[in-house]
Amino acid sequence: MAEHPEAAPAQAGDDRPLHTHQDDKPLLEALPLPAEGTFVDPKAKKKAPAGEAGAEPAVDPVVARLREAFPDVSFDPVAATADGCPIVTVPAERWLEVARFLRDDPQLGFDYLSDLCGVDYKDALQVVYQLRGVGHDRRLTVKVNVSKEQPEVPSVVEVWPGAGWHEREAFDMFGVRFSGHPDLRRILMPPWTPDDVFPLRKDFVDRRPKRERKVRPR
């Protein structure tokens, strides 16, 4: 029986497919395919089943529950994150009411605020909340839009006490005022910072002389 000849080493610029030592199949064809469901490309668009072209995507259970409890609020759900976390937008004037429901509803139980941050989109500001539940693995991202002319949103300290520190940071960096916060004051910038200075806004300009911008240890 003749021995299988060894393939000549590939040279720079050689566009021949790599081969295995067992057969002449290209290496990528010889490798086993991953099991179904082990990887989902977040950029890939799912095709509707046969006969269901144009069908509406399934509504996330969390979004469905919110719509059931607040039929007058659209919530403007958007596509979930790559790892499946649903995202909804809540009007600022309804946010405190919705926040209490998200925490207290037995079907939802989002009793833990893991993060809160501000975002500047030039024309408007946004506060983004990341919610979880201690007793389950559900997650939810909530976005609340606020105008730059009147950047105010209800504080959720009474719902999630840990929000106090996050809200102070969003106030300090973006100028968002959280009505009802028990101690809304700057947390990172020094107390003598001018009232209209918010360093993470896109329109912020540091007008200090360059020699004063470097922080010197005391």
UniProtKB/TrEMBL annotation:
Keyword 4Fe-4S attributed: no
Enzyme class label: translocase
Basic and acidic residues biased stretches: 13-27
Membrane topology listed for this record: Peripheral membrane protein
Localisation: Cell membrane
Entry GO terms, CC: plasma membrane
Region annotation (Disordered) ranges: 1-33, 38-57
EC numbers: 7.1.1.-
Highest taxon above the source species: Bacteria
Catalytic activity: a quinone + NADH + 5 H(+)(in) = a quinol + NAD(+) + 4 H(+)(out)
Family: Belongs to the complex I 30 kDa subunit family.
Oligomer and partners: NDH-1 is composed of 14 different subunits. Subunits NuoB, C, D, E, F, and G constitute the peripheral sector of the complex.
Name under which the protein is recorded: NADH-quinone oxidoreductase subunit C
Organism: Thermaerobacter subterraneus DSM 13965
